[in-house]
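QA checklist item 7 of 12: single-chain prediction sanity check.
[x] sequence parsed
[x] length recorded as 168
[x] structure emitted
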Amino acid sequence: MGMSVTISAAAAEDAEQIFKLQYLAFQREAELYGNYLIQPLTQSLDSLKAELASDTVLVARLGDEVVGAVRGAAGQDGTANIAKLCVHPRLQGHGLGARLLRAVEGALAGHAGTTRFRLHTGVKSESNLRLYRKAGYAQVGNRTASDGVHLVILEKEAARPADFAVSA
């Protein structure tokens, strides 16, 4: 019998596993853009630890192994920013990214004043764009990141916290 993947808040002790997962999971993006200087690959462990302390960080676990992660932060203007959604390559394509996205939206919707969610992905990242559009996100703009990657900015209105179902 196989183990099921659970999603929960990240702990400080998860930093190294998240760091390694992020580096592994974003290799495909780096290859797609021919750019290995994208922020998820150049982020320091100390910077990630700071995000763990200040942001909403969720992890997906298969037993003791962190196999997915996502970060979010509620902003002053009612916009909650979601970033660095990643899933271990061996588990991609099984709905875990969508589960993490719903879970971080639910966690961020609980912050007073959150009215919308915003995230971004590269213009060539078709599987990411499909996931986000299926989750209700629409393109609201684009920009070029400091690493030169052209990004699509997507948003969706936040549902009330009671509208989010908790799934294991």
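[x] summary fact logged: Residues 96-109 form the longest helix (14 residues).
[ ] second reviewer sign-off
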